[in-house]
Amino acid sequence: MVTQRYAPLSGTNTNTNSNPSSNSGTDSNSGTGSTVQIPLIGLGTWPMTGDDCTEAVTSALEAGYRHVDTAENYRNEDAVGRAVVGSGISRDEIFVTSKFNREWHGPVDTVRAGLEAGLERAGLEYFDLYLVHWPNPDQGRYVQACESLAELTESGLIRSWGVSNFKPAHLQRVLEAGLVPSVNQIHCQPVDAQVDVQEANAAAGVLTAAYTPIGRGSELLDRPEITSIASRLGRTPAQVVLRWHVQQGRIAIPKSGDPQRQRENLDVFSFELAADEVAAIDGLDAGVPSETRQDADAFGH
Fold first, then answer.
1. What is the DSSP code (8-state) at residue 80?
2. Alpha-carbon distance 25 to 294, whole Å?
3. Cis peptide bond prior to 190, omega within 30° of 0
4. Which residues does residue 27 pair with via DSSP β-bridges, in sequence order?
5. Cβ atoms within 10 A of the Cβ of 203, count?
6. Dihedral, CA atoms, 76, 253, 104, 157, nearest 10 degrees?
7. Strands 37-39 and 6-8
8. Is 74 one of the annotated active-site residues of the chain?
9. Distance from C-alpha of 14 to C-alpha of 109, rounded to nearest angstrom
10. Helix 142-152 vs helix 108-122: angle between axes, to the nearest 10 degrees?
11. Using an 8 Å Cβ cutoff, are 11 and 150 in contact?
């Protein structure tokens, strides 16, 4: 089983029944410490649902994953929860992230209603991380939703809160309200790294989590800049890209239902990329949105 690595989250509640946050000291490799710790590699679950999703999460947990990503809009919180509860692994050893839709943006009672509905679907007592899935600026309530999340960290229903798909301007409004999300989960891969968003996150002390971290399909993983590094290291192209993420301090959330690929995707902590290899992968960034990235000013749910 591969040993997971962790990063500390800021602005979190350590008063839940979750073991990794209750010990003294901090260790980014073990998951222990006085703050909530998030595993650097998580399992993405969209668009899996039902038994397929439950089986995928079960095999990932057996392989050593301790971070699973779900969302209200994925319609698989129930399937993820069944796998977590049925795993035989202590709940406090599994980090579950979920996200909520625009209808729950609002005062604390509104956000709490959405949160409680998600927990009921999942059959869990709390989420480790709860995110505003999209800012939905046309609705204009994402700052209020963040204020509500910050308050809810004292409820025992969430251990930490954050945002997803927030551009620098969206994040700035949240910061101006005196709030600092622990995470901004964004579409991020070598050809579409969203460097401006990453820089805004870093300046604010917000961790970047990457969904679609290895792209979709095989186009990225067939690039010679990637395959040449993989060949030299005796690794898969996906492992090289995932190592590129975690070596630069990002959380990466690759989706796979295949047990072998799950194991490979998790096994990225026993090697390092050289500086010129990191630079070569950085150089793939086209500086424009990829076809798979939605515009957060126009898209949302």
1. H
2. 40
3. no
4. 32
5. 11
6. 80
7. antiparallel
8. yes
9. 22
10. 70
11. yes
**Eight-class DSSP state of 237:** H
pTM of the model: 0.93
Give kind and range of the element (H or E) at residue 164. Answer: strand 161-164
Choose the catalytic residue: 65, 74, 126, 142: 74
Q: What is the pLDDT of residues 213-265, one digit of tens each?
A: 999 877 899 999 999 999 999 999 999 999 999 999 999 999 999 999 999 99
Which long-range CB contacts under 8 A does 138-141 form with residues at least 24 apart?
A: 138/300, 139/102, 139/105, 139/300, 141/102, 141/105, 141/106
279: amino acid identity, one letter: A
Q: Which amino acid belongs to residue 91?
A: R
Interatomic CA distance for residues 201 and 255, integer angstroms: 23
pLDDT digits (tens, 9 = 90+) for 114-163: 999 999 999 999 999 999 999 999 999 999 999 999 999 999 999 999 99
Element at 252 (helix H, strand E)? strand 251-253
How many CB atoms lie under 10 A from the CB of residue 162?
27
